[in-house]
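Internal tracking record. Fields below are filled automatically when a chain is submitted to the structure queue. Please do not edit lines marked as system-generated. If the sequence contains nonstandard residues, flag them in the REMARKS field before resubmitting.
Queue: standard
Priority: normal
Entity type: single polypeptide chain
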Amino acid sequence: MMEINSLIIELRKEINNKELFKFYLFGSARYSDRPNDIDILLVYKNNSLLKQAIVLRNRIKDIVFSIYNIHADVVLLSEYEVLNNSFITDEKCILLNV
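SYSTEM-GENERATED OUTPUT FOLLOWS
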């Protein structure tokens, strides 16, 4: 799996209230040391946080590019959406300890 400690450290700096967001890694970065991109699922607590999640998604893309020089695909889902579909299971997402 790709070394993601630098990403986790940078994400921690971006988040004021860690209970409002969860981050998951999925895709090829789960098992490859040299993925073509990094796929991240950003789960936000409720719809009132959507604008903040969009800003955070853009920031994650910048962070990933600055650290790894590759692009990030960031999927946004609310907690409600996560509870009502099987994305996390289907994609074998790994919760990042941010």
